[in-house]
């Protein structure tokens, strides 16, 4: 590796890749340092079975029509599903009649109106303070919101949720979102297995020290997670400004994990079974099951917040039994025989990430702006946590990386 650059980018997840493309477009001499053996960060595609891709992390092209990675997917020949899946709500194994389905929809609308009214009042409070907890739909709603932020409703800001730019278009990538990021990163100057340990920005430029030596640059863009930053796995000299340190502490990573159940038949359900089932036992078991993911023969669902954190610490069979309990409640005991494989992600166990994605603590929705503010005109943080309008997403990280380079060099 050469010893002098215009720019060093730390991390080769979506944020680092976005920064790299901006640097390339600007004609900068740059390198990307990645601690892992792979690119993609929290985007990772594996095979559930031969020829069947499954995303352990990023899964949807959120807000698809304004998502720049949707265009990139098209450019590399990847496919995504833009359709609206058929959907039904099951409460304790019984499909809700149409009237009660409308009641669920109305409940969701009412809850969002409360978020909008709270934002209009300038409040920055926990979402839990706005929820009608007496509704039978409340347990599922709280579960669903934990998927949006990777935290429970008492641990994230409702104002932050309001600031998210959502077009309600969530398009799964057939070949895998993680694989898309890998394809997008082809040809970029990424140095794998290069763990950055210290960044000195006390002079006119920056000195970046890794396990493979030291390099100098005019600028550095750091795209690692707030989990890594909060653990102080990278040392900064001088110490980061107070506002930046408070931003990192106020945007901790929550827990979120994906699950997949491979079934042996092409479609082991009745013809009128919907593509997606929202399930609640009315209490602590709530799941959003996607029964056919981009044409692949597996059931997808996810858990977030405290439940995800607890399940990650248990043997894998505990998660499988919990999900199977809900599916048996819907389809009957014979359904157990149709599942041939179960897999789960475990992002909290990844020492190079340390969690899922960032949730703004109540009272701290402004911290994303502070995290994305350049320091000493040569250091800037990027990634999903630094995105004001698309946090918790790969495209938000990608745009943040791009914007960080522009802030430093323009």
Secondary structure elements and pairings:
Layout lengths: L3 E7 L3 H12 L4 E4 L11 E5 L2 E4 L4 E3 L5 H8 L11 E5 L2 E2 L2 H23 L17 H12 L8 H6 L6 E3 L4 H8 L5 E2 L4 E5 L5 E5 L2 E10 L3 H5 L4 E3 L4 H9 L5 E8 L12 E5 L5 E5 L7 E7 H8 L3 H16 L7 E6 L22 H5 L7 E3 L12 H16 L1
Helix pairs in contact: 1-12
Give descriptors for this structure.
alpha/beta; Polyamine Oxidase, Chain A, domain 2; 2 domains; eight-stranded mixed β-sheet
Concise overview:
It contains 12 helices and 19 strands.
Structural class: alpha/beta
Low-confidence runs of at least 5 consecutive residues: none
CATH class of the largest domain: Alpha Beta
Major sheet description: 8 strands, mixed
N-to-C terminal Cα separation, in Å?
27 Å
Radius of gyration: 22 Å
Shape type: globular
The share of residues in helices is 25-40%
Q: What fraction of the residues are assigned to beta strands by DSSP?
A: 15-25%
Under CATH, the topology of the largest domain can be stated as: Polyamine Oxidase, Chain A, domain 2
What's the number of structural domains? Answer: 2
Mean pLDDT: 95
What CATH architecture of the largest domain would you give? Alpha-Beta Complex
Count every helix, treating DSSP H or I runs of 4 or more residues as helices: 12
- In total, the number of strands is 19
